[in-house]
Known about the structure:
Blueprint: E1 18-19, E2 26-27, E3 34-36, E4 39-41, H1 46-53, H2 61-66
Antiparallel strand pairs: 1-2, 3-4
The protein binds zinc ion.
Amino acid sequence: MIDRKFCPADPQRAAWAARCGLCGRELYDGDAFYAVNGLAVCEECLPAFAREEYRAFRVTGREWRMS
Ligand SMILES: [Zn+2]
């Protein structure tokens, strides 16, 4: 006999906790994501987000050798 009080909410019906600031994906209580300066970034969007954030640090081999 399962006590319904202790069953987790149906994820399809649960209200989302946050939305990814890049793709708009709904993020639920059990989802892990990155909270960056108040912006929610999902796992899938992190590489693109990081690439954009660190654009200023992008160098070529020549630039690296000359610095
Ligand atoms: Zn996303």
